[in-house]
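Try this one yourself first.
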C-alpha cells in the first residue's frame, strides 16, 4: 500500500487495532517495510490523530511485552520441526 503517508498511517493504525497485529504482521499485510509502519505510526499518526495514536500505542506496548513469549514459541517449534526431520530420515 503505497501512497499518501497520512492516509496510510490511519489505515495501518486501524488494522493494528482491529486485529491486535504486530508491526511485522501489519507490514506483511500491506506489503511495506516494518520501518515504514513504525515511522507512520510513531511520527505521522501522532501529528494527525492523537486519540488513534494512543489506541495503537496500547497494542504496540502489549505486543512488545509479549514478544519474548512469541520468540520462545517460535524457537521451540523450530527445534521440534528439526527433530521430526531427523526421525523421518532414519
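Now uncover the answer:
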Amino acid at each position: 500500500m503505497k501512497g499518501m503517508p497520512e492516509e496510510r498511517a490511519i489505515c495501518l493504525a486501524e488494522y493494528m487495532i482491529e486485529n491486535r497485529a504486530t508491526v511485522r504482521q501489519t507490514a506483511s499485510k500491506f506489503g511495506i517495510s516494518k520501518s515504514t509502519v513504525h515511522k507512520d505510526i510513531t511520527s505521522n499518526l501522532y501529528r494527525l490523530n492523537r486519540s488513534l495514536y494512543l489506541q495503537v500505542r496500547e497494542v504496540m506496548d502489549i505486543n512488545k511485552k509479549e514478544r519474548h513469549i512469541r520468540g520462545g514459541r517460535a524457537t521451540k517449534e523450530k527445534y521440534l520441526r528439526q527433530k521430526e526431520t531427523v526421525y523421518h530420515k532414519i
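Discussion: Residues 12 and 48 are 13 Å apart (CA to CA). DSSP finds four helices and no strands in the chain.
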